[in-house]
Design goal:
Double Stranded RNA Binding Domain; about 30% helix; globular; Arc Repressor Mutant, subunit A; four-stranded mixed sheet; three-stranded parallel sheet; alpha/beta
């Protein structure tokens, strides 16, 4: 396995982290309350990673992720991922999830159906719960049946998931981004937008404002 590097970067919903190696992105860390906590969580997952300046292709991926979380149009589908340690079933789930466009959703059951076995919905949920590439593999766009959000393992839980869907829904409907702020570059390779926003728990767990992808 090649040596891993990592960097922290700021987004509209808080500090995130990214880990990469010779074959692409090895992992992403969803928002934490502070840079220190983001770094701690990331190093717990990738204890051998070294904090360093991201190479150009990783800088490009960071900027796309930051733009997406500001409600801007950003295509993450060409970002290279290191799938070397991802089992075959999870790869298939992630491939389907990665093709869900911003502003749209699929249910766990619909992904299972596309895999050829609708009773696998629970297994799909477990695979997405282990997703090492959140945002690039947009597990937040996979919801439960009946308009319910389903689970989410990031800080803030379902509240973070619904906020991400709301941001993308605004962009998909042609509305201004919810977090329309200039992006700058700060020291220690941390890309900053502004002070991270606190994630509030939703009053309801129903998913609204996103369109459902029709089954194939």
């Amino acid at each position: 396995m090649s040596a891993l590097g990592f960097a922290l970067f700021d987004t509209a919903i808080g500090p995130c982290g990214i880990v990469w190696g010779g074959r692409g992105i090895a992992g992403l860390q969803l928002p934490e309350p502070s840079e220190a906590k983001a770094r701690t969580r990331l190093l717990r997952r990738f204890p051998g990673a070294a904090e360093t300046a991201p190479p150009p292709e990783i800088q490009h991926a960071i900027r796309l992720i930051v733009a997406l979380l500001r409600g801007e149009t950003a295509d993450l589908s060409e970002i290279a991922l290191d799938l070397g340690r991802v089992p075959p079933f999870e790869r298939k789930v992630y491939e389907i999830a990665r093709n869900i466009p911003p502003g749209a959703t699929l249910t766990y059951g619909e992904i299972a159906s596309r895999l050829g076995d609708k009773p696998l919905a629970r297994d799909v949920g477990q695979a997405l719960g282990k997703n090492p590439f959140p945002i690039v593999v947009p597990c937040h766009r996979v919801v439960a049946a009946g308009g319910k959000a389903g689970g989410f393992s990031a800080r803030g839980g379902v509240g973070t998931k619904l906020r991400m869907l709301a941001i993308e829904g605004a962009a998909a409907n042609g509305q201004p981004g919810l977090f329309d702020r200039p992006i700058g570059v700060a020291s220690r390779y941390i890309l900053r937008t502004d002070t991270p926003l606190e994630v509030e728990e939703p009053k309801t767990k129903a998913v609204t404002g996103s369109r459902q992808i029709q089954g194939s």
